[in-house]
Amino acid sequence: MSLHLYNSLTRRVEAFKPADPARTTMYVCGPTVYNYVHIGNARGPVVFGVLADLLRRRFGALAYARNITDIDDKINASASEQGVPISVITERFTAAYREDMAALGVAAPDLEPAATAHIGEIVAMIQRLVEAGHAYAAEGHVLFAVDSFDRYGKLSGRDPDEMLAGARIEVAPYKRGAGDFVLWKPSSDDLPGWDSPWGRGRPGWHIECSAMAAAHLGETIDIHAGGVDLQFPHHENEVAQSECAHGGRTFARFWLHNGMLNFDGAKMSKSVGNIARVHDLVRAHPPEALRYALLSAHYRGPLDWSDGLIEQSVRTLDRLYGTLRDLADVDADARIPDAIEAALDDDLNTPQALAELAGIAGEARKAGDAAERARLKSELLGAGLALGLLQQDPATWFARGASGEDDARIQALVDERVAAKQARDFARADAIRDQLAAEGIVLEDTPQGVRWVRKVA
């Protein structure tokens, strides 16, 4: 098998191999920790987490970094409003982010660098840019001179003048060029700041990722990933400052960008106000269903988010876990099927992988031979493993949101209904069925007997 990925830099699908066979490197842009993240912010961590596991299976050692931006004007504003140090804000929402990602089945990255822990590296990179003539100091600021990098715009593939015309660019008298962007800015006494050759101040957003990626992964990395909304200006600026600071060496060999989530036809964003926070969603719905929903569309395209999508994902997982429950008497170890690996090797084609998983489950439900049932259960578990799904005990999945005592009560009613039907007491059987239906319990007739599931709210 050969892994192929769409490279935003070249705008084509290319075969991927790490530059160093002994160490694959990947950097994914992480959150700015001033509030809870919305579900759109979780798409990248979920999808690129699947990629991280795939890279480890293909190439062995992986250094996967996902940063924390813990110095930002929004963080400063929140801290000022509450009258607390920025660390109170950042520590709270960093912890919440980790908790919410874990609920979605997103494993922690190998490295989680924070911007405030890399001020020295940031200052050093800015100094190199100034010395090389790619940046200049002005009124306490240091700015990158866009016209000093003749390949500016190569990542987004658009003319710099067109990009600047469509972007919200800060107009300031100290700028030499309209598109020049801030690497360092001054801090007043009431704002967080660090000493630097240009006075007390704090870093601009773009320089943070460049410095942290270089510090932990090297001057050239294999894969840089993030949301397509970051392609310009954030990632474009990362390319410019990194390659200028490192003597023209390529910053990232592959660029991967996930598409946005739409809600009622509009892009989900905090500025619009049409957001669904992960922190709330994982408490209102089975987190695994949210993960399934995020994987249901190809990562490069948009994903239409809705309650209907969540409900459909829950029902699908009900069927899949129901299949595993029916195979409870079969001993099997997870084995990732070739068809799943082939789908993921094809630019992370998770919709195809989910279709293959459903096909395996369908075969398993029809299989009668013991060896065939064992093979299919092994493949079903393996397919789930590759996607971060089906790793719970089926009983745990079906008991979501309920106590063990409630499960026992429901099972007792199901058993009583079966007995009533066998005794031809159809009035009692119908009464129990109606009672369970009113409680949101759906009964399913299977070759193994009557099963029950909780209906999606």
TrEMBL record:
The keyword Disulfide bond does not apply. Keywords: Aminoacyl-tRNA synthetase, ATP-binding, Cytoplasm, Ligase, Metal-binding, Nucleotide-binding, Protein biosynthesis, Zinc. SMART domains: DALR_2 (SM00840). One of its GO terms (cellular component) is cytosol. A motif ('HIGH' region) lies at residues 31-41. It catalyses: tRNA(Cys) + L-cysteine + ATP = L-cysteinyl-tRNA(Cys) + AMP + diphosphate. The keyword Magnesium does not apply. Zn(2+) binds at C29, C209, H234, E238. Residues 339-398 form the Cysteinyl-tRNA synthetase class Ia DALR domain. It holds the Pfam family DALR_2. A motif ('KMSKS' region) lies at residues 267-271. It is found in: Cytoplasm. GO terms for molecular function: ATP binding; cysteine-tRNA ligase activity; zinc ion binding. ATP binds at K270. Its cofactor is Zn(2+). It is an enzyme of class 6 (ligase). GO terms for biological process: cysteinyl-tRNA aminoacylation. SUPFAM superfamilies: Anticodon-binding domain of a subclass of class I aminoacyl-tRNA synthetases, Nucleotidylyl transferase. Monomer. Belongs to the class-I aminoacyl-tRNA synthetase family. PANTHER family: CYSTEINE--TRNA LIGASE, CYTOPLASMIC (PTHR10890:SF3), CYSTEINYL-TRNA SYNTHETASE (PTHR10890). This is Cysteine--tRNA ligase. It comes from Marilutibacter maris. The gene is cysS.
